[in-house]
Amino acid sequence: MLTAFAWGVLPLLFTVSVGALIGLIPDVVGDGFGSDAGTALIWTLAGTTVVFAALQVIEPARQALEGIARRQIDESLRAKTIEDLSRPPGISHLEDPDLHDHLHLIRDGALELESSPGGAAVMTIRLLGIYVHGVGGALLVGIFFSWWAAAGLLAACLLCRRILRRGLLEYLWIWRAPAQMRLQRRAAYDQWLGVEPPNAKEARIFGLNAWLIERFWKVWDECMREPMRIHRRLFRNVGVAYGALGLAYAFSFVSMADAAGEGTLELGALALVVQASFDVAHLSRGGPWDYDLELGTVVLPKVREIEAHAARATEEMGRTSPAADVPREGVRFEGIAFRYRGGDHDVLREVDLEVPAGRSLAIVGPNGAGKTTLVKLLAGLYEPTAGRIVVDGVDLREIDPDEWQRRIAVIFQDFVRYELPARENVGFGSVPSLRDEEALARAATKAGALEMIEDLPHGWDTVLSRQYTRGADLSGGEWQRVALARCHLAIEAGARILVLDEPTASLDVREEARFFDRFVELTEGLTTILISHRFSTVRAASRIVVIDDGRIVEDGSHDQLVARGGTYAEMFRMQAGRYTGDRNAP
């Protein structure tokens, strides 16, 4: 605040001191350098030098302080936003499309404009200095020359600023409009589509290059149409406004010259008011303070919304029951229905399912049937649209979500491949065990990953990415074993429900056979839910349910379902027929 105020006041002091300095020159010439006028000239020159030196210091100091303040505000806001986003146990709020647009501004600022809440705060303070500078210049013109000239120049500069600001913001906002952003993404995608190495092969084989170039220019022309219309109007309006401003300055300068010629405006005062009129002109200019204030503050309502959502979630968590030693009896889905945000149909409908504790359950069905969604509901990542999930007779909504999620070990089909050391990739199954070498080794051994990890360049400390020096990437099957090891570590830390979503999708036939040879041993005492398209896999479960179109349509053991001759039997015969050549194979 002080540097911004000084940044506005020091130029005015320099204007006054230079005017006084020039005003003393005629007296010094007439009376000599040893006169009182000469002494005053020396002191005035010394003061002007001090002000000039301060001007040279204040600018880099202001920029440095602004940079520090911007970073501190933005990083504090980002850290708080991450904390608020991470607090709710579910993830449905993270799939809000509007939230992603605002998070982009919070995280990265507006593209190429670097607008952010920190920038808005900094520019608000800088704007104080700009107005002090401009209004102060108008006051000097009024005091030393004419209040009419001061008012005219001030009004003309503020009018120019208003027109320029409104036009600039309209031009900037058109690039943030949803339809315009979609066109930009399309143009950005099309621009390099034919020359990126993965795509270049097909672009040449199928002769797509000419078509892609034509498509890009068509989208780009459409993308630029509205911004260019606004741009032309901005130039026209600004041209008219600054033309009027030029006339105001011309009239003022002519009046100053006339007053100086008549002797009513002395040389020093003339120099002062001419420079002061230039100080007023600072108000007519646009700058980053305009779009930083506009774009930087637009995210703040969403930040408050995120904060309120986290506060509600925290309050609800305060009323929950502990989840120690559950499930002892089992988990029951009662009349479950679920629809994703923005969806037009229920993914799950009227699902009733009981999963006894300590038993294994396999879930099969076509893609999109709702298998993985059921697991996400069980893990508390979403809440059912209708119905409820009961654990040992207690509604899941009443159980502490953090404790409950620590009772579940899940390997999703799209499990995370962290670009971190192997230690973290396994250790995230139980963060307190990150430095427990024995626990890590036991988990890796159960997943068949220990030998592979120990053979890495730095063993457990090898970063699993080739983007880092001496890092290493893994094959799909190796990554899957690491993810399995993560689950086993979670189980050792107390998880009692194991969920495997396509656990052998990336394993070769031999590795898959080894995994299921040990399936009973690895899942002993656990409540296990297995999702897989491979019927050789699901046969290891003691019970199988078939989900189709969001409903459970069959329930039983493998032999029972095959004998029933329904959906499961048909799917099993089709898959077995791929290997035997007989679609009617048992």
Structure, described:
The protein is an alpha/beta fold. It folds into 3 domains: 2-306, ABC transporter transmembrane region fold (Up-down Bundle); 325-407 and 496-586, P-loop containing nucleotide triphosphate hydrolases (Rossmann fold); 415-492, Rossmann fold (3-Layer(aba) Sandwich), CATH 3.40.50. The chain is built from 22 helices and 10 strands. The protein has helices at 2-31, 36-86, 97-108, 117-144, 147-174, 178-191, 197-205, 209-262, 267-280, 288-297, 300-317, 371-378, 401-406, 422-427, 437-446, 450-454, 476-492, 509-517, 519-522, 535-538, 558-564, 567-580, and strands spanning 330-338, 348-356, 360-364, 386-391, 394-395, 408-411, 497-501, 527-531, 543-548, 551-556. Helix 1 (2-31) runs antiparallel to helix 9, helix 2 (36-86) packs antiparallel against helix 4 (117-144) and helix 6 crosses helix 8. The termini are far apart. Mean pLDDT is 81; it is low at 579-583.
